[in-house]
Design a protein that fits this description.
two-stranded antiparallel ribbon, 3-stranded mixed sheet, mainly beta
Length: 64
């Protein structure tokens, strides 16, 4: 599957931490849950399904 055909998800700061499969995915498409770090580079790809997650443009992640 090419990068243009992979699912994409834009993430709001309020929805961190990011995990896949996300709640919007159909049950038949589920795989083991993995947490993805989008805070360092602004994006991450799921190693199972290839879904690209990226922070919404202009989002500011605050440290704890």
């Amino acid at each position: 599957m090419s990068d243009t055909n992979k699912p994409n998800a834009v993430v709001e700061v309020e929805h961190l931490p990011v995990y896949c499969p996300n709640p919007a995915m159909p049950i038949w498409n589920h795989h083991p849950k993995v947490f993805l770090d989008v805070t360092k580079t602004g994006s991450a790809a799921c190693p199972y399904c290839g879904t690209q997650y990226r922070l919404k443009e202009g989002a500011v992640v605050h440290g704890h």
